[in-house]
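Hey,

Quick one before I head out. I ran the complex with T4K overnight. Inputs first:
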Amino acid sequence: MRRFEIPIVIGRPYLPDFGAFSAVSEEVWQARILSNDGPQLRKFHSELAAYLDVEETNLALFCNGTTALENGLKALGVDGGEVITTPFSFVGTAHAIVRAGAKPVFADIDERTLCLDPASCERLIRPGVTKAIVPVHVYGFPCDVDGFADLSRRYGLKIVYDAAHAFGEELRGRHLVTFGDMSMVSFHPTKIFHTCEGGLLTFRDESLQQRLFDLRNFAIRSETSCVSVGGNAKMNELQAVMGILNLRVVDDLLSCRKRIHRAYADVLAGMPRIRFLSPEELGVREFKPNYSYCPVMFEDFRTRERVYGQLKDLCNVYARRYFYPLITDCPSYSYGRGTCPVAEDAARRVLSLPTFHGLAPEDARDVARDVVELLEGRS
Ligand code: T4K
């Protein structure tokens, strides 16, 4: 068994060369524009639109992903209604729904993809009360986009994807983060592509953009005009600089994750007593994954807890139990506890293994071997 000298943490942000960052930041210093839709933000907005192959009218940048989702839901008018979502996600997904003035209602997940199950959602739809569904592309695994499009058509509901994990992925030749009525992407440092903190909304209906800009900047449109109520959710110029630089190396960021994922798969795929969750195993056609997470499913809670603890204590490896506890285990959402058995089971058995730009594939392979040895050992 290998004990790493330097701790292997779950993730570390990629950082561009400091010289390159200061060179572009020099422009910020010269301009002394630090926020409020400055030149770097506008440049990043255009470059992102080009990368995602969407019109500039169909996206909006925010200070973080949770705020983006909250404002997106506000713009779609979910206030006072119910929004169906998954308990198997980061708690920010549910918080955004509440902060947009709606009640999250929790449906169960598909046991293969761990993403929200459209059939489970359909049972919870209340005509006139349910306003939207927020499925999450968990670990970057694509939701059943056809199933949700069908629900949207039949019940007139908005589909807003939490695509926090899905940057860089393509489904049927289109960026996964452009599906649905709206999609939110997180640019947090723990994500493949980041802007220190940051968030993005892409949306189908371009008329939403003005409303989103209003929500983002106090609804101020000019020195003398404030048209409604808005907050402050702006991305600043240095965040945008980070985004511009990281976008230049996005292919490298993606291929590095692929190499790490492959190293884990070499050891873990097909192993008895565990399931290494991989996009290949899901068999989604015409899908280009980003390999943003490397989750393993153990046979039971006790084994997961033991391996998680021993990886830390014996190997100096800091895996994380994303997503445990479930959102419905948090006091604010406990009304959903016991209603989603598949999610409850998955949360107790899953473990995300470290993956980040700079993690050597040989080290990932050793982490995987440690997992296997611990699994075979006795508690
Ligand atoms: N929806 C979903 C499905 C999400 O996963 C998230 C965020 C959101 C919505 C909300 O998007 P944002 O509003 O965040 O844009 C992390 C992140 O804080 C969170 O953004 C993320 N999901 C969640 C899955 O993971 P923690 O509690 O694991 O973060 P933390 O501080 O323990 O850091 C993890 C590791 O990364 C540590 O080993 C330290 C390292 N790290 C972290 C930061 C922030 C660094 O090396 N440098 C850093 O700057 O939550």
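The pocket of T4K is lined by residues 9-13, 64-66, 89-90, 92-93, 136, 162, 164-165, 186, 188-190, 199, 320, 322 (CB under 6 Å).

Talk tomorrow,
K.
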